[in-house]
Amino acid sequence: MGTLAEIEVAIETLPKDQQRGLLLFLMERLRVDGPPIPEPRLFTQEQMKAWMDEDEVDMCRFRAGE
Fold this sequence. Notes:
Layout: H1 4-13, H2 16-33, H3 45-63
């Protein structure tokens, strides 16, 4: 397989579990060859609740057509 198009066609013939395995393999390769993954951001319970409350208000406005 020499071209991306050929590889894409070959991937389509794989069973879904093998496609997932290939994806995990590629992600691992990119992680090793690429920049380091940043550390997860930490948020307080208060921050999370405030964002969820804001989202609920926005959804109510959206549903009301505002």
